[in-house]
Amino acid sequence: MNKINILDKVKSNVTNFFQPKGVFDKNFVKKPLIMYLIFGLLLLAIPFLQEQGYIQFYTMGVFGMIIIYTIVALGLNLLLGYSGLISLGTAGFIGFGAYGLPFFSNLLGLNFTGALIVTLLLSALIGALIGLFSLKVEGVYLAIATLFVGEIFLEIFRNVEWFTNGFSGVKFHYPHVILLFFQLRITVTSFILLVLSALIVIALGYIGFKKYKNKQKSKIEKKENRITKIKSRLLSIFKIALIILGLMLVLQIVLGEPLLTFVQSGNSITTTGFRGYLKLEEFDRNQTFRFISLILIASMFIIYNIVNSRTGRALMAMSRSEHAAQSMGISLMKYRLVAFITATVFATLAGTLYVSWFTSAYPDSWTLGFSLILIAVVVVGGYKSIFGMFLGALIIHGIPTFYLKEAFADINGLPFIFTGVLIIVVILFYPYGAIYLRHDIKRLYRYLKSKIIKFIHLIKQRIQKSNDSEVNEDE
Amino acid sequence: MNLAQLIFNSLETGSIYALAALGVVLIFRTSKTTNFAQGMIGTLNAYIAATILMKWDWNIWAVTIFAIGTAFITGIIIDTLIMRPAAKASAVSKQIITLGIIMVILGLIPFLFGINNLQLPHFIPVSPDTKLALFGASLNYNSIFTISLSLVLMGFLFWFLKYTRWGLAIRVTASNEVTSRLMGVPTKSVTMISWATAAMFGTLAAIYLAPGGSVNPNMLVDIQVNAFFACVIGGFGTFYGPVFAGFMLATIKNLSLAYVSDEWGHVLVYILILVFLYFKPYGLFGKKTVKKV
Amino acid sequence: MSNLLEVSNLSVSYNVIEALKNVSINVKEGTIVAILGANGGGKTTLLKKISGLIKSNKGNIVFNGIDITKLPAEKVTQLGILQSPEGRQIFTDLTVEENLRIGAFTLKKTKEFSKKERIKVNLKRVYKYFPILEERKTQIAKTLSGGEQQMLAISRALMASPKLLILDEPSLGLAPLIVRDIFEIIKEFKKEGTTILIVEQNALQTLKIADYAYVLQLGEVIIEGTSKELMQNPALVEAYLGKKNK
Ligand SMILES: Nc1ncnc2c1ncn2[C@@H]1O[C@H](COP(=O)(O)OP(=O)(O)OP(=O)(O)O)[C@@H](O)[C@H]1O
Ligand SMILES: [Mg+2]
């Protein structure tokens, strides 16, 4: 009889393993917005890991580029995935961002934020023009019209020296922006603090979620009540911690004096207090990385909100049938404008981040080839997917540069062959993008799980039988 | 530069644009995709030509014929191995597949031919003796030859499309693939031949261009872009439209560079074309195709 | 007379929709066989399957002793099955004569005649039936009227001198007078020795020229018989063929 009990335990352990019921409730973590936050935290860990010497400086550089790719792809996806329109001029808009920011900050003497705003506004204007243009011209003609726009940019980048400094390229610096925690030099303590505060945000969200869920609870789950009680006690501790933290921050800002003193390690100086924030120091490389990571997370939020709003549904309705959508009262013009402006502004934003991250830009980077690669990021990552864009960028830019270049440094061109074959294979076998790999993985997972449970069940039955026969013999 | 010279030069560039554009429409009409890889396929075969010329010491005529042959094979391989399995993919996905092809070739080139740029000579050596003076323009024999060869090839293609049984088969496949199959047209072979032909045109364009610069991975990027431009100006609806537009585009660009501005010449032309496209969204000779709701 | 076409136990489905269930039909050489039935009965699906445009789940199709179940469309056509598809599907941007010439794509030369001569003969033949097409031969096909386009679609299939001519609703959208003409001409085709498989909504008129007929409903053959039998079945006439046609 004991044997059966042990097996029951094993079985419940297996099921628990596959369906965890801990604090990080599966459904809760699945909420996209929370996932973006967690994702952002993971990204923030990269400069930290770099400082601690776990990853190379070079690797962080590549991650910066991947983030930039992802931001472009997020905007482009609104065109390609949600509206079914193709743009071959993306590289031009990225280039416009990369040249516009230095141009407007050097020549017009604007600060970083000012130059950024001017650049983005101009880009939105051009995007709007293309949007209007797209009402008249369609299909492959529209695609090549956007290629015209890209080539116009390229011609300007190459030839108009006063704007782009021609082939010698422009130089720029890391950004300086008033932003609270980017100014903090990361030390062990401050990183832990960051993680802590993020955990609090997550926990708070969890409480809200749990409360909502409690209402729907049935009798079967009553036995879980005890666990919930313990959890809520833990959570209230979190709450108190958050309140204390918040108060400290407010006091810190109001008084302008550091109330939290960070441990100084090595030569990294802790900037704390109100005055420090206002100094507009230029970021260092790690701060810049955190800055572009933040922009990425913000972009994900924005795109998530667009596609899950009326606008997103309208865009999808239009990609299926413009005429049908129009007859349903959807204004083609409005949504074309939204789609094109978003795509161009995101591309330009990514361009400004590019020049801030690499601190220079050259005209020959912004060719049709680059636009095509960005389309590949969207297609490989998965139409209509947000995380897919990061996955796509990781696959298209990350894998070749990280792995292949180092592992096969002596074999020229292998990264290209890899990417090319990958693109073809993904489209042939995952026509909706690599993000759908997870469905296959899930299926495999479920299959294995059912096999394991069946197996245990089988053994259990056998044992029961043998037990029964034992019992019989006893009689 | 005088006007006659300008026009002659435009004719030379235009014939290359036209050849490339013809390849693009051919594939667009039969495979329903814009082939971004055409230039790269041409470049690959130009590398083959240059390598054979160097290693085996063949002359330019022999390597050109050989490269045309390998181009034919490349086209067929790409169609059967990659494009046909992707026949059901969306138009955009197919375009991205051609991007994948670009990358594979881009990776293969240093692998197969080394990282150095290669050279190809002119068909007819260019020297002061091999020139013709006409209306104050100097025309070298090589350019005259390339222009004539392109014109003859394109003329042959048009005759083929218009008057032969297989030409008709290509046109019906372009018009309505399913019904073509009902008429017994082996549309798969037609598509394959289109890829092979486009690859040959691309290769020829590369071999024309190489002596002016070098055989390098980016040698046809500009041609490819301009071929697309010619296709929208002339319209994808006909085969002759893009050819005409190819010559036109080359001429207008050269005129604008010479008489308007070095810096802004091309930009101005492109903007004008966009404006033109706004009023004629299907190109000079294009018609609106009926779209199903 | 032997069977030119034998379809046995054919099942076809589009994803979840079962468009054909266990359909068996025979077409004897030199006859006109009609397939009738309400909209959505699966008639076009059957013809598409015979021509090799779609895949089947079950059953097989034998033409002239050759199993054509798995052959692609172009191969089927090369064997001598020519279809004038539903909705005409003419090549709108080609001229009338080019449309006719592509119909003769599979025509092969014989001992007496070269391919060119055979095309010429066939052109003459269709121009005899439809003189209007000769008048319009250099015109772009898009500019033809609906009826003329239908004539073109039928003629195009005829250009290959098919062993089996398949017509999918040749009377669709035509004026009664023209319909009568077309049916007369179809009878002529038969006299010349062409076997015909015709799908029609216009039931009574079709039965008048057909030798044998099948009625398809929701993918199943519910009635079959000679035209005479079918016309004498009042219940059937009322239920499936519509009494008003009388
Ligand atoms: N491509 C397709 N995808 C899904 N379902 C289809 C497809 N084509 C036809 N069907 C369905 O299969 C069934 C049979 O269609 P089919 O076209 O064969 O009918 P039909 O007898 O020719 O009708 P009609 O007289 O209206 O032409 C219909 O229910 C139709 O909706
Ligand atoms: Mg039908």
N to C succession of SSEs of chain C: EEEHEEHEHHHHEHEHEEHH
The pLDDT mean of chain B sits at: 88
Q: What's the helix-strand series of chain B?
A: HHHHEEHHHHHHH
Kindly state the number of beta strands of chain B: 2
The end-to-end span of chain B amounts to: 53 Å
Helical content of chain B stands at over 70%
Share in helix of chain C: 25-40%
Continuous helix count of chain C: 10
Mean pLDDT figure of chain C: 88
Structure described in brief:
The complex is a heterotrimer of chains A (475), B (293) and C (246). Chain A is mostly helical.
State the main characteristics:
heterotrimer; A: 475 residues; mainly alpha; ABC transporter involved in vitamin B12 uptake, BtuC; 2 domains; two-stranded antiparallel ribbon; 20 helices; 2 strands; 75% helix; 1% strand; B: 293 residues; two-stranded antiparallel sheet; 11 helices; 71% helix; globular; binds adenosine-5'-triphosphate; binds magnesium ion
Description:
The complex is a heterotrimer of chains A (475), B (293) and C (246). Helix content of chain A is 75%, strand content 1%. Chain A has helices at 2-18, 26-30, 32-51, 57-82, 90-106, 112-133, 139-159, 161-164, 180-183, 188-215, 225-255, 273-278, 285-307, 310-320, 322-327, 332-358, 368-381, 387-407, 414-429, 437-474, and strands spanning 170-171, 360-361. Chain A has a two-stranded antiparallel ribbon. By secondary structure, chain B is mainly alpha-helical. Chain B is globular, with a radius of gyration of 19 Å. The termini of chain B are far apart. Chain C has 246 residues and is an alpha/beta fold. In chain C, a hairpin with a 2-residue loop joins strand 9 (212-217) and strand 10 (220-226). In chain C, helix 3 (96-103) packs parallel to helix 6. In chain C, the strands form 2 sheets. In chain C, strands 6-7-8-3-9-10 form a 6-stranded mixed β-sheet, sandwiched between helices. A 4-stranded antiparallel β-sheet of chain C has the order 2-1-4-5, with helices on one face. Chains in contact: A-B, B-C. At the A-B interface, helix 7, helix 17 and helix 19 of A face helix 4, helix 9 and helix 11 of B. The complex binds adenosine-5'-triphosphate and magnesium ion. Magnesium ion binds at residues 43-44, 86 of chain C.
